C-alpha cells in the first residue's frame, strides 16, 4: 500500500502544500507563512490538514498501514526564517538544491525554480521553459540534456504594484484587473495597471519567442499564484502564443515527487 506524504514548498508570499499517496496527488492548497512567536513547538499536523479541509483520519485512513501520528513532509524552501520553524517536525525531509538532478545549475539558484523546471521537464518533456508568476516572476529553462540553460528574475505583478505604492506619495495600491486593461489610460489606477501589465506581457512574449528560437516547439509552462491572470492577459493579446503555453499549478510538486523518488532509490 502506498504511503501518504505531504509536500511543502515555502515561497516568499506563502506556503504551498500537496498531499500525495505514493505518486498520486490527492489535493493541493496554500496557507499563510507561520509566525514563530512563543516557545518553539512542532507544527501541528491536525491544523495543517484542517486548512485544506482534510481530516487527519481521512489522510491516515487513505493509506492503510500508516500508524504514525506524523506524516512525512518533504520540504523545500526559499525563505530560511520559515524553514527554521519546521526543523522540530519529526518526519521532515528537507530537499536541497544539490539533491535536484538538474545539471549546470549555480549554487544560489532558487530551489523552487529548480524543482519547477525539473517537474516541467519530467512531465511535459525536455527541453522546457518555466514561467513562475509568483512573488517574483521568473523564467527558468532547461535543455534536452536536462541541464539548466538559464533564466531571469523580475518583480512579480503584485510586487510591482506594491513597490509603486510604497515608494511614491501619490500612487495607490491597485487591484490588478481580471481582464486586459486599455493601454492608453486616462486615470491613475488604469495607468498603473496598463504600465505593469503591458510591459510584463511584452517581456513574457519576448522571453518565450527568444526561447523558441533556440528550442523550437518546446514546452512552455506557466505556474505560480498569478498564473491564471498572466495567462488571461496573454490570451487577450497573443492568443496564438497563449494556446501553446500550458498552465500547471503543480510543477514544483511534480519536481518534488521525482526528486523524492530519485533520492529514495539512490
Ligand atoms: N490568496 C492569495 N494570497 C496571496 N497571493 C495570492 C493569492 N491569490 C493569488 N495570489 C497572487 O499570487 C502571488 C504569489 O504567488 P505564489 O506563487 O503564491 O508566491 P510564492 O511562491 O512566491 O510564495 C501574489 O503576489 C498574488 O498576486
Ligand atoms: C527568485 C525567487 C525569489 C522566486 O521566489 P518566489 O517568487 O517563488 O517566492 C527564488 O527562486 C529565489 O530566492 N532564488 C534565488 C536566486 C536565483 O534563483 O538565482
Ligand atoms: K514563485
From TrEMBL:
How many cofactor units bind, and how? Answer: A monovalent cation. Ammonium or potassium.
For this protein, the record's CDD domains field holds:
ASKHA_NBD_PanK-III
Q: Which reaction does it catalyse?
A: (R)-pantothenate + ATP = (R)-4'-phosphopantothenate + ADP + H(+)
The family database entries (Pfam families) matched by this protein are listed as: Pan_kinase (PF03309)
Write down the InterPro entries for this protein, in alphabetical order: ATPase_NBD (IPR043129), Type_III_PanK (IPR004619)
Active site, renumbered: 112
Instruction: Give the required cofactors.
Output: NH4(+); K(+)
Q: Which family does it belong to?
A: Belongs to the type III pantothenate kinase family.
Q: What is this protein called?
A: Type III pantothenate kinase
Q: Which gene encodes it?
A: coaX
Amino acid at each position: 500500500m502506498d504511503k501518504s506524504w505531504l509536500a511543502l514548498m515555502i515561497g516568499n508570499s506563502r506556503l504551498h502544500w500537496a498531499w500525495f499517496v505514493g505518486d498520486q496527488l490527492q489535493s493541493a492548497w496554500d496557507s499563510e507563512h507561520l509566525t514563530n512567536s512563543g516557545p518553539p513547538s512542532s507544527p501541528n499536523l491536525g491544523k495543517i490538514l484542517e486548512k485544506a479541509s482534510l481530516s487527519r483520519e481521512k489522510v491516515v485512513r487513505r493509506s492503510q498501514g500508516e500508524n504514525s501520528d506524523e506524516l512525512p513532509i518533504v520540504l523545500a524552501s526559499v525563505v530560511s526564517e520559515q524553514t527554521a520553524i519546521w526543523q522540530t517536525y519529526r518526519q521532515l525531509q528537507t530537499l536541497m538544491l544539490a539533491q535536484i538532478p538538474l545539471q549546470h545549475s549555480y549554487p544560489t539558484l532558487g530551489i523552487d525554480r529548480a524543482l519547477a523546471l525539473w517537474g516541467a521537464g519530467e512531465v511535459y518533456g525536455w527541453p522546457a521553459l518555466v514561467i513562475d508568476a509568483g512573488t517574483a516572476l521568473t523564467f527558468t529553462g532547461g535543455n534536452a540534456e536536462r541541464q539548466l540553460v538559464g533564466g531571469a528574475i523580475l518583480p512579480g505583478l503584485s510586487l510591482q504594484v506594491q513597490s509603486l505604492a510604497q515608494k511614491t506619495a501619490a500612487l495607490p495600491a491597485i487591484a490588478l484587473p481580471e481582464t486586459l486593461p486599455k493601454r492608453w489610460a486616462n486615470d491613475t489606477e488604469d495607468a498603473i495597471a496598463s504600465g505593469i501589465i503591458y510591459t510584463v506581457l511584452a517581456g513574457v512574449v519576448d522571453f518565450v519567442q527568444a526561447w523558441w528560437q533556440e528550442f523550437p516547439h518546446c514546452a512552455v509552462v506557466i505556474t505560480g499564484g498569478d498564473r491564471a491572470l498572466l495567462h488571461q492577459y496573454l490570451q487577450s493579446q497573443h492568443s496564438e502564443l497563449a494556446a501553446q503555453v500550458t498552465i500547471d499549478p503543480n510543477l514544483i510538486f511534480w519536481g518534488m515527487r521525482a526528486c523524492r523518488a530519485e533520492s529514495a532509490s539512490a
